[in-house]
């Protein structure tokens, strides 16, 4: 790649993908702390006294009682997970209510701050644009890590590979044009790897089908026996599953049949709350007669599926705990800084 072509790629993608990356970065940085912020703003809905004393059996029993009470009006039930220690129900009319996991007492309706973070996530993933927005964001993420970051690194390497210290140094007492350039090239170098990982993992949420197809080449190296179906029971029902806790997983959510998906979906997670390490899940699907349609588990899934599960904790930094979340939070501000400094550098050059 010639320097001239690299500069053109970096310029035009910086003016387009750089802007979208700035929006995604800022919204993503704020969303990193969504669990803590939500819990602080909504203690009456999300926090429960002595939650650790509530057993898994009790959580399921309360969920079963709520199900018996509301029956066909329920669209989804969410058990405690991440910042939420209560049980929430999304009804078919679109309303969401929160209930005490021990007593089943009504705690309240979805708050404005919860709605705000839902909108924030929608902007992060799709710019708030229906249907095509996620493809704009996902496509920009791919262009960002394949061409924008790589062309920037190529330009940096060509200029500073023989003088590394100069390539990362910011001289604070310089004219504003030179300082602007120093900030751009130094931050671009230091955050090259974090931004690369965040952009690559972020594009997965739009193009997960293609990612999984690519990852399937790794399945040939796997030597475990894959058991994707439950063979011990012909049929199950919601009451059986709520009366018998899974020994390895905690029930996270129940999705009830609807026109677009006429099946019950039971989603399980190994750890209810944020912990470092691999994300391990289980999913069970039943038809309306209780027949098992599919059953997946991290421990029996193909390697490609196990890896695919890790894109979310990698993207948000949770896979390595608090240090990872802090790094992702800081990295979220870098695209907008690079966009502004790059834009200023471009206008100064054009004016010259």
From TrEMBL:
It comes from the Bacteria. Keywords: Membrane, Transmembrane, Transmembrane helix. This is PepSY domain-containing protein. Signal peptide: none annotated. The chain crosses the membrane at residues 12-33, 135-157, 187-207, 326-347. InterPro entries: PepSY-ass_TM. It holds the Pfam family PepSY_TM.
């Amino acid at each position: 790649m010639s320097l001239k072509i690299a500069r053109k790629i970096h310029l035009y993608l910086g003016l387009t993908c750089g802007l979208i990356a700035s929006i995604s970065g800022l919204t993503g940085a704020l969303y990193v702390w969504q669990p803590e912020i939500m819990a602080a703003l909504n203690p009456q809905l999300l926090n429960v006294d002595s939650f650790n004393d509530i057993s898994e059996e009790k959580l399921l029993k309360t969920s079963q009682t709520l199900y018996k009470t509301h029956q066909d009006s329920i669209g989804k039930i969410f058990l405690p997970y991440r910042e939420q220690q209560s049980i929430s129900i999304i009804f078919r009319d679109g309303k969401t209510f929160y209930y005490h996991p021990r007593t089943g007492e009504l705690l309240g309706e979805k708050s404005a701050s919860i709605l705000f973070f839902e909108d924030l996530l929608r902007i992060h993933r799709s710019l708030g644009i229906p249907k095509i927005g996620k493809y704009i964001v996902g496509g920009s993420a791919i262009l960002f890590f394949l061409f924008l970051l790589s062309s920037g690194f190529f330009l940096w390497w060509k200029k500073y590979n023989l003088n590394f210290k100069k390539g990362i140094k910011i001289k604070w007492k310089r004219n504003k044009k030179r300082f602007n350039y120093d900030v751009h090239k130094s931050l671009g170098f230091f955050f090259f790897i974090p931004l690369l990982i965040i952009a690559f993992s972020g594009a997965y949420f739009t193009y997960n089908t293609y990612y999984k197809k690519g990852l399937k080449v790794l399945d040939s190296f796997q030597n475990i026996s894959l058991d994707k179906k439950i063979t011990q029971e012909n049929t199950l029902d919601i009451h059986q599953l709520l009366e018998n806790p899974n020994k390895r997983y905690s029930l996270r959510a129940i999705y009830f049949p609807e026109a677009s998906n006429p099946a019950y979906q039971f989603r399980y997670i190994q750890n209810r709350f944020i912990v470092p390490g691999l994300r391990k899940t289980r999913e069970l699907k039943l038809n309306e007669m209780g027949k098992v349609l599919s059953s997946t588990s991290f421990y029996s899934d193909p390697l490609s599926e196990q890896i695919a599960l890790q894109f979310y904790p990698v993207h948000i930094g949770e896979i390595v705990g608090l240090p990872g979340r802090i790094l992702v939070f800081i990295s979220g501000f870098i695209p907008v800084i690079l966009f502004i400094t790059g834009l200023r550098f471009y206008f100064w050059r054009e004016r010259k």
